[in-house]
Amino acid sequence: MQRLIRNIGWLLTGRGVNAVLSIVYLALATRTLGLDGFGYFAIILALGQTVTGLANFQTWQFVVRWGAEADGPADATGFAIALDMLSVLLGLVLAAVLVSTAPLWLPLPPDLLPIAFGYCVISLLAIRTTPIGILRLRFAYATATAAETVQPIVRAAGAVLAAIAMPTVSGFVFAWAAAEIAVALALWIAAGRLERIDLTRISLKHIPAAHPGAWRFVWSTNMSGSLNVGAKQVLILLVGAIGGETAAGGFRVASQLGQALVSLAQAVSKAIYPELVHAQDTAHDMARRMANIALVAGVLAVLVTLFFGRWALDVIAGDEFGVVYWAMVILAIGGAIELVGASLESLLVSAGRAGTAFVMRAVPTLLSLALLEVAMGWNGLKGAALTVLGSSALSVIGFWVAIISLAQITITVKPKPELPPRG
């Protein structure tokens, strides 16, 4: 538990740096581009992150799960790199389809379509879950945090340059693309110094041959990861398709400020998963304690958003973004729920129930996307935020029910202790 708290501390340090610098580049982008221009910018970023989120395999989990074996992480890393290559190929096809059809359903000007496709390509080439897995396998959270800090630093510096020299949507997209490349390079260099990466072990066959259930685990975690990352970005795209670029920009600001807790939840999940894999006997107790801590942190964060959120919007984004205040508060509540559910979801995955975790995440997410147009017609961005809140609540309830069922099964099959002989 002590190591877990230390690792979470390193991750939160990185998140803290990211949070501070994100205020800088969010303020520069919103105030330079305005509500409409920031809406176009938000749509392009959402396209790139949707492609990456849907195509990317959660390879860090494979490195952690199979890399801890006696023969080392060579095969696990080779399998992860092979999956990354597959992700790039699948992502390029998806990017071509989404960008070519964008004029039919997204409020994106034709001159920005090449920029959008280029950002999708850069995002795919900058996939970095494998080096993150290597660093987490060795519990090198301090090193990982230092490498990941490159991204917000380059973004903030790029946003300053864009605001001065190229105050357009394209200028800010270039800054974000440069940050993607920089952080990917930093993480691969850090991982390479810690663990020799044997390129001859790149294969899609070695790990599945040694672990018959490998592909089932791969697809389950991929689909869960796609939902976690992709659904958020798909939501922004759909908000833009339904309400226009102004709605997309406003919702991204509300999401970035209100759902900062989701990033925190992801940090907690990534820190606790290796611990749960290595300590199955105490996994339930560890997850329960982390959920209790998360509950207190979540309530405090929602209160801060409620009382200081409007002021933060005015200071960071400007008066015209004040209309998204209540959407931001609703998203903050959803983020608090996700924070509580992070350790529960990790517990299910570490117990080999990745498929169950996916179902508990997929059904509410698909339901929320299906209801989005009705919700926005009823109450605009607040309605869209309520669909996110409802999805998070249903998912976490599902995780809790699944864990209770898992615990009952474990108790049922646990052998009874032998009684000492009488006399």
Automatic annotation (TrEMBL):
The keyword Cell membrane applies. The chain crosses the membrane at residues 7-26, 38-57, 78-106, 112-127, 293-313, 325-351, 358-378, 384-407. It comes from the Bacteria. It is a multi-pass membrane protein. Pfam families: Polysacc_synt (PF01943). It is found in: Cell membrane. InterPro entries: Poly_Biosynth_Transport, Polysacc_synth. Keywords: Cell membrane, Membrane, Transmembrane, Transmembrane helix. The keyword ATP-binding does not apply. This is Lipopolysaccharide biosynthesis protein.
